[in-house]
Structure formats: structure tokens, C-alpha cells
Task: inverse folding
């Protein structure tokens, strides 16, 4: 019985892989790898928010990779935007923010970003934004 289930699962995985390749999806790794973040980041593709990641008390305790492949259309030039938001801290003298990430397009590292600042604000706000024309990086 266990052998039959194993064969069925193996065959299912094999067929899924075959049909995924047959559909012509040849996108390689397209992602954003975040290694520093304070306070939260939102990711947009062609103006539509596709992801959000928040740091715990201003600290990203482990790297976080955001896969862009589900949102990219092969052969289409698209805009990928990363927006960093900083929370409000009324009792702070300043309000530090940081953003560090690496951009991977078709499996290759194409950009490395590290930005930081310190500004007091009266409300949470976007403090940094960067856009990529995905077909032209």
C-alpha cells in the first residue's frame, strides 16, 4: 500500500513538473532578498501591492526573500517598486529607519541597496522608495 502511494505521489510530481515546463514558463529566479529592515516594506508590481513585510521592533531577525515570479509576465516590461515605511514614535528624539536588500533578475544579482536615515515624524509615513523597470535592469 505504501509503495502504491509513493508511486502515485512521484508520478504526480513528475507530471506537474512536465506540464509546467510545457506551458513555456521559463522565468528564472526573480526576487528581492531583504537583509535589513526598519520598520516595514511594501512591494508593488505595476502599481498593485503584491507583498508586505514588517520587522519585529525594528529588527529583521533573518533574511527574507520575496519571490516576484508569480507577479511577472514573461516578455512584458513591468515596474517593480519597493516602498519603506517608518512607524511613529512620539517619545523618540529621532526615528531611525533602514532598508537593505538585493535584487535578483533571471537568477543574477543586479542591484544591492542599503539606505538609512533618522527623521522624526508626527505619523507613520513612507520614508524611501525605489522603482525598477524590470525588463531593463
Result:
Amino acid at each position: 500500500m505504501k509503495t502504491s502511494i509513493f508511486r502515485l505521489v512521484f508520478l504526480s510530481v513528475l507530471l506537474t513538473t512536465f506540464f509546467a515546463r510545457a506551458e513555456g514558463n521559463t522565468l528564472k529566479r526573480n526576487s528581492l532578498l531583504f537583509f535589513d529592515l526598519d520598520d516595514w516594506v511594501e512591494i508593488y508590481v505595476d502599481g498593485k501591492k503584491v507583498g508586505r513585510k514588517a520587522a519585529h521592533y525594528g529588527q529583521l531577525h533573518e533574511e527574507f526573500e520575496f519571490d516576484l515570479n508569480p507577479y511577472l509576465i514573461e516578455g512584458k516590461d513591468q515596474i517593480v517598486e519597493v516602498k519603506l515605511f517608518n512607524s511613529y514614535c512620539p517619545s523618540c528624539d529621532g526615528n531611525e529607519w533602514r532598508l537593505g536588500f538585493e535584487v535578483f533578475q533571471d537568477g543574477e544579482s543586479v542591484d544591492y541597496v542599503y539606505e538609512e536615515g533618522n527623521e522624526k515624524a508626527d505619523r507613520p509615513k513612507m520614508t524611501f522608495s525605489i522603482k525598477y523597470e524590470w525588463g531593463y535592469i
